[in-house]
Amino acid sequence: MIAFLHVYVSDVDEVYHRALKFGCEGLEEPVQKEGEQDKRGMFKDFAGNMWSVTTQLP
């Protein structure tokens, strides 16, 4: 079973780069899209689970 997880974290850049350091596959670099409060990144872990990590910016 593969899961898609969406998690709010305090520092999306740090979590994303740490995941890559530990062997996860980067799918989308953290970015804040125009008009959104969230900065999001996405990666896939060793089991195939997809992670969307997000930090809400002021």
Largest sheet: 4 strands, mixed
Low-pLDDT runs of 5+ residues are none
Give me the count of strands.
4
Shape category? globular
- Helix percent reads 10-25%
First-residue to last-residue Cα separation: 36 Å
Global Rg: 11 Å
Secondary-structure element pattern, one letter each: EHEEE
Tell me the number of helical segments per DSSP (H or I, 4 or more residues long).
1
Widest β-sheet, arrangement of strands: 1-4-3-2
Overall pLDDT level = 96
- What structural class do the secondary elements suggest? alpha+beta
Could you tell me the strand content as a percent range?
Answer: over 45%
Protein name: VOC domain-containing protein
Domain VOC: 1-56
